[in-house]
Amino acid sequence: MPTLLALETSCDESAAAVVRDQRVLASAVASQVEEHARWGGVVPEIASRRHVEALPGLIEQVMAEADVGYGQLDAIAATAAPGLVGALLVGSVTGRTLARLHGKPFLGVHHLEGHLCSVQLGEPLPPGPYLVLLVSGGHTEMIRVDGPGRYTRLARSRDDAAGEAFDKVARLLELGYPGGPAIQAAAAAGDPARFPLPKGRVSLPEGGFHPYDFSFSGLKTAVLRLVTQLRAEQRPGEAFPLADVAASFEQVVADVLVERTTRCARDQGLETLVMVGGVAANRRLRQRLEQRCGELGLQWRLAPLAYCTDNAAMVGVAAEQRLLAGGVSDIRLAVAPRLALEQAPLLYGAPAPF
Ligand code: KG4
Ligand code: ZN
Predict the structure, then answer these.
(1) Mean of the pLDDT values across residues 210-220?
(2) Mutation probe of ligand 1 site: the residue of 12, 110, 132, 166 with most atoms within 8 A of C-beta
(3) 141 CA → ligand 1 middle, Å
(4) Which residues constitute the domain of residue 189?
(5) Among 57, 77, 167, 292, which is disulfide-ready with 107 (CB 3.0 to 4.6 Å)?
(6) How far is the C-alpha of 309 from the C-alpha of 22, rounded, in Å?
(7) In the chain, at which residue ranges do the beta strands (DSSP E only) sit?
């Protein structure tokens, strides 16, 4: 039963956690959301500086809460890719320095592998391969998982990620950043059927449409057009139908994600569907997925709400899995802004690939 300290600093959440045996002993996240909100999105330079400020306190906090000393740790892990380079470097350098100081192995972790592992912090998964819908601010992908570290990507968004669509639509509705929670709140009392919006299909060169791939940029443009039209038609003193626009947008995103993912699971003969990532926190999407899986006789597991958005507990679980399989990173492993999930094993090779 290894015990690990894990760090996550790939974007705008600074996070530390102590995990043991796929369980969280302590987990803390310091969000920088308010800081970035005034700029309408993440400012990389600010993100790096805030990580430097927040991380030492978070590490102290989780080590104390878990009641674990450095001597009791079996390894130290930090997200190494993909993400903002300056932000990633803060966690990576901190993790590698602590590992060196205390004579512990270091593991660099692939951020998406972390998200995939977040579901293991909930109810146990049924046996057998499963299909994961990974929906975050940077990625929208379907990944078949055949076992620890055995991934095949079956679909992706051709343009914006689902979270990016939430963030962009929130901006044009003047709801602020991050868009997901803001749209969810605005949509709560709205009518999701009031404004029909397009489902963004991806055409194939040979004709027809891709059965699973997503496209969200057209949807964003459609919402912009709708908002412009509604504002032009708005009479003095009449309220803008914000709740209905937000609910209609949320509904079409949920429908398209759930429709294509359940279709892919059935085509692939996969009986379990898993959903992870920041957008997986969305209430309407969670309900729609549960309902559709129930109708189709598929099993489902959703990442626990607390571990959908970026956190270090999921990074710790991924690192523990790698450690148990004999994976340890070269202490010189740096960070990479981009790295395909299938290339995660590179993080455990020597010499370090970057
Ligand atoms: O996984 P995550 O924390 O960071 C990335 O790895 O990208 O995901 C952040 C994304 C943001 O785009 C945010 O707007 C979205 O997740 N998000 C949500 C909700 N909470 C966060 N989207 C829809 N509904 C939510 N409740
Ligand atoms: Zn993430």
Answers:
(1) 97
(2) 166
(3) 14
(4) 127-302
(5) 77
(6) 18
(7) 3-8, 13-20, 23-31, 75-81, 106-110, 130-135, 140-147, 150-156, 272-276, 299-302
Here the tokens at position 256 are 């398209």
What would the pLDDT profile of 117-136 be if each residue is shown by its tens digit? 999 999 999 999 999 999 99
Last residue of a domain, one of 266, 285, 302: 302
Distance 156 CA to ligand 2 centre (A): 16
Q: Is the CB of 160 under 6 A from ligand 1?
A: no
pLDDT band at 35 (very low <50, low <70, confident <90, very high): confident
Nearest protein CA to atom 3 of ligand 1, as residue: 309
* pLDDT 10s digits, 316-340: 999 999 999 999 999 999 999 999 9
Strand, coil or helix: 80: strand
- Answer whether residue 291 is part of any domain: yes
Q: What is the predicted pLDDT for the residue at 38? A: 85
Determine whether the shortest distance from the Cβ of 278 to ligand 1 is under 6 A: yes
Same domain flag for 106 and 132: no
List the residue whose alpha carbon is closest to atom 22 of ligand 1: 180
Task: Flag whether 21 is in a domain.
Answer: yes
Residue 166 domain-assigned (yes or no): yes
Residue of 309, 311, 315 with the most ligand 1 atoms within 8 Å of its CB, for mutation: 309
Residues 109, 221, single domain; the answer is no
